[in-house]
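ok posting inputs for the FE2/S2 (inorganic) cluster job
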Amino acid sequence: MFTILEKRDLADKICEYVFEAPLVAKKARPGQFVILRLDEEGERIPITLADTDPKTGRIKIVVQAIGTTTNRLHCFEKGGAIADIIGPLGTPTHLDGFKKAVCVGGGVGIACIHPIAKELKAMGVQVTSIIGSRCKDLVFFEDEMRAASHELIVTTDDGSYGRKGLVTGPLAELLQGADKADVVFSVGPVIMMREVAKATKPYEVKTYVSLNPIMVDGTGMCGACRVSVGGVTKFGCVDGPDFDGHQVDFDLLMKRLAMFKEMEQQSLGLWQKEGCKCHK
Ligand SMILES: Cc1cc2nc3c(=O)[nH]c(=O)nc-3n(C[C@H](O)[C@H](O)[C@H](O)COP(=O)(O)OP(=O)(O)OC[C@H]3O[C@@H](n4cnc5c(N)ncnc54)[C@H](O)[C@@H]3O)c2cc1C
Ligand code: FES
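and the output
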């Protein structure tokens, strides 16, 4: 069992959890994820490592409650325990050989871009980060991202905090500068990552996006996480989750993510009707 050592509300339906998982903390690299199971019968859900500390053996994750399992997790309090944390999984983000990077995080993806920005800065890369949320109440990890970057730009869709508009606004300005970045990393909603890749393509700036296909085993065995990159089928869990944003078939990814919508809604409805008794 893995005990929740800390739990912090970051925004509406977005919480940060700290667990002790020394083996994961020791091996994890930026861009990798874990698979959680709340109990023996629970579904397996992939979640990116938002931070790790090999010295204390602690890992941090940030989870947005959107369906049954993530809402069930939100009912757990500090001191509660979940059945499994498996990882680190996935291929770490490729970080070598860059001088100037832009890290773009949207929504819960802000937590996922954090270890990438942090490591790049530690490696001596000049890091500008752009984090975007729908509104002020959903902005989180501002201090963490400021510490992990040389410059931080915050955007909100409605202009209630930071710059009004989408993350692609400031990104376009940065790309037009004479001393533009040689790489862009982006994690967030699929539509955002597609637009980031569209924005960087004319400038031929290498762009990595972290894909979130539905995953089951997370080790390349089941094929659930198939994505198409440059016309070739790849497995998100082992070949990714990072891929060349200019090569990804985003439409196919969106279609595959919506495949089980009806069942997911039924499951959430049932759980809400029965009330949460899962971790008691
Ligand atoms: C590599 C990776 C890293 C991720 N990191 C984070 C993170 O750091 N924080 C976070 O909040 N979310 C993250 N996600 C998304 C998270 O896994 C889903 O939100 C979660 O699985 C939803 O489960 P549910 O039962 O609550 O919702 P459901 O109702 O089952 O599903 C809601 C939606 O979540 C997606 N989803 C459902 N099951 C899976 C699955 N097994 N694998 C992937 N997506 C699924 C689908 O788009 C689905 O429509 C990540 C996904 C991937 C693939
Ligand atoms: S999740 Fe099964 S192959 Fe990737």
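notes: The chain has three domains: 2-89, 98-207, 211-263. The chain has a mean pLDDT of 95.
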